[in-house]
Specification:
Strand 1, helix 2 (51-60) and strand 2 (65-70) form a beta-alpha-beta unit. The chain is mainly beta. It contains 4 helices and 56 strands. The chain is elongated and about 85 Å long.
């Protein structure tokens, strides 16, 4: 082989590989309202003074393009041709595919103009075209504040964009979408996305309003925006004070906060967010409110994971969440605490068993297909309802679908209802409620059912603990479970157990919680209990009767060694925080081949456990 050809070939391959692994670098355009050079965007000293000029430049430039914007306030009606602003309320900052707009730079005149800190160098995109906005204490007052009458309908728009249109590190404020519905001027005061799916990172969307939808952001017509590390604060609208998603829009939210947003007006719904169809991960919804329903979130149909929903309120239904949708939501590893409403302090699920015929004399419509709402490893604490369902309210509402809540490994504690169902209220003739490995304790109802109230339909309770709940009659069995319909209870611990509910493997023995006064519902164990406060394993001087007392056919899941080969009752059964099985002293700490139950002896008991679970396929992600 020709050595020269071989060398050239290797060089060509190397160049191609470098081109593949090296990210594309494009044009950088600079914006600084204080720059006094050529103002052509080529450097900090020659930066454009107006963001609109930079966007016009980027729009005609080869992509990708980055626009670096220095601290300051920028309005969408201003550019070099109209430096004092046109006052045009329809003016907006339109995002562009292939263009990343980054705020938070020190800019011209600073020792390091490229210093980047979005808090130290706040960059504001403002709809306050006259610069005269008066701050309001309550987002409800945003639409009627006279100084906002001339503000932009939409500060930012992401129409017809994809994820290559990026907005990063800005405060978006002062939008006032109170215009014509025909031109979508009553939606999305802060950001309006129509068929647009931009990426929005590290932004604060605050003090924006809309007369109808999405005070902070409005997504419509398959707008699947991706938002990361964003804050929605003090926005208001009729539907979705912080955000509304509609017409197939499924945004993805990660590490976002919705704080103090409001839904205002008759039947106003979704104080923080209306329309959950995508995924929401590690987000916080706090102190949001709705005049009618869904203080934190409404119309929930997506995947909500590792979220905190706290301190939200609704005038009528669902202080934390109002789930009125044909798309069933899933909640996993969420904390829902301190929310309030008239019914369903934490969550409200409407459903119905029948669908009316389509016309008089027409054949009956087939029953609706049941919808499963899966709630797994969630904690409901100190939620309250003025009437029924301190945490959850589940009712026949006339909407044509049946909701079947399936709750697994959940805790309900310190919730209260003025009337019935301190923790949960389930109304007549509706879907089947399934609770598996749940702990329901220290909840209160003024009338009946401190723990759960079941007025109709059927319920299944397995591997669960109901203890220290109280109602107007005291703390007996009916205070734990009040029912007028079918209840199937197996392998559960219920205070005041009388046996009238039947079932298998139930008892009324004290479950011996670790520290219930401080919200720790792990089961005491002489072999080892996970202590919530110290985040460590401790040994108690007693062992809970609920350890190894669950359904023998239930998988033990991720229970630590020694685990007895049988799932524990309560919220931590089948998890890595399950209390350990005690077989006497010394506690077995050696894993032996064939020792299934962890008692340091291989015998018939181990074979029995193996036989019971023979060919059983455990999938922790599978639905119950």
């Amino acid at each position: 082989m020709d050595r020269r050809f071989s060398s050239i070939s290797r060089l060509v391959v190397a160049i191609i590989l470098v081109a593949i692994v090296t990210p594309a670098s494009g044009k950088v355009i600079y914006v600084d309202g204080d720059a006094n050079g050529l103002n052509n965007g080529s450097s900090w000293s020659d930066a454009y003074n107006y963001l609109q000029d930079a966007l016009a430049d980027a729009n005609t430039s080869a992509k990708p393009v980055e626009i670096h914007v220095a601290e300051g306030i920028y309005t969408p009606d201003s550019n070099s041709a109209v430096p004092n602003g046109s006052g045009d309320r329809t003016a907006t900052f339109q995002l562009i595919n292939g263009v990343t707009i980054k705020g938070g730079y020190a800019g011209f005149g600073e020792a390091d103009p490229n210093a980047h800190d979005i808090e130290a160098y706040e960059t504001i995109l403002s709809g306050d075209l006259s610069g005269n906005d008066v701050e309001v204490d309550d987002p409800c007052d945003l639409p009627t504040e006279p100084t906002r009458a001339e503000n932009s309908f939409h500060v930012v728009t992401g129409n017809d964009t994809d994820s290559n249109a990026v907005l990063d590190g800005f405060t978006i404020t002062g939008g006032n979408a109170n215009g014509s519905w025909q031109y979508h001027q009553d939606e999305g005061g802060g950001i309006h996305n129509y068929r647009g799916s931009p990426r929005i990172d590290n932004c604060t969307i605050s003090a924006n309003s809309a007369s109808e939808d999405g005070g902070g952001i409005y997504n419509t017509m398959l707008s699947n925006s991706v938002l990361t590390n964003c804050i929605f604060n003090g926005n208001s609208a009729h539907w979705g004070g912080g955000m509304r998603n509609q017409d197939g829009s499924k945004p993805t939210l990660t590490n976002c906060e919705f704080i103090g947003n409001k839904a205002v007006g008759p039947y106003a719904t979704g104080g923080g967010l209306y329309g959950v169809y995508g995924s929401i991960t590690n987000c916080t919804f706090s102190d949001n409110s709705a005049q009618y329903a869904g203080g934190g979130l409404a119309n929930c149909g997506g995947h909500i994971t590792y979220c905190t929903i706290t301190g939200n309120s609704a005038g009528s239904e669902g202080g934390g969440m109002h789930c009125d949708t044909l798309s069933p939501p899933t909640l996993t590893h969420c904390t829902v605490a301190g929310n309030t409403a008239r019914r369903g302090g934490a969550m409200y699920f409407p459903s119905t068993p029948t669908v009316p015929p389509p016309c008089p004399g027409c054949p009956p419509t087939p029953p609706p297909k049941p919808i499963t709402i899966a709630i797994t490893s969630c904690t409901f604490i100190a939620n309250s309802a003025g009437e029924d369902g301190g945490a959850i309210y589940h009712i026949d509402s006339g909407n044509y679908f049946i909701v079947n809540p399936v709750l697994t490994n959940c805790i309900f504690s310190e919730n209260s209802a003025g009337n019935n169902g301190g923790a949960m209220y389930h109304d007549y003739y509706i879907g089947r409620v399934m609770l598996t490995n749940c702990t329901i304790s220290r909840n209160l109802a003024g009338n009946n059912g401190g723990g759960t109230y079941r007025a109709g339909g059927s319920s299944t309770l397995t591997n669960s603990i109901l203890w220290a709940n109280s109602d107007g009659g005291g703390t007996d069995e009916s205070a734990q479970i009040y029912y007028t319909w079918t209840m199937e209870v197996n392998y559960s611990c219920i205070q005041g157990w009388t046996g009238t509910l039947g079932g298998t493997g139930n008892n009324g023995d004290d479950p011996l919680f670790g520290d219930p006064n401080n919200g720790d519902y792990h089961l005491k164990s002489q072999a080892g209990r996970w202590e919530q406060n110290s985040q460590s394993w401790v040994q108690d001087d007693v062992t809970s009767p609920c350890i190894d007392a669950g359904d023998p056919m239930s998988p033990i899941g991720l229970e630590p060694f020694p685990n007895g080969g049988r799932v524990n009752m309560g919220a931590y059964g089948g998890t890595v925080e399950a209390s350990k099985s005690y077989f006497g002293q010394p506690v077995c700490e050696v894993i032996m081949a064939g020792d299934v139950n962890g008692d340091c002896i291989v015998n018939f008991l181990d074979f029995r456990i193996m036989a019971l679970h023979w060919l059983q396929d455990y999938n922790p992600t599978a639905p119950p």
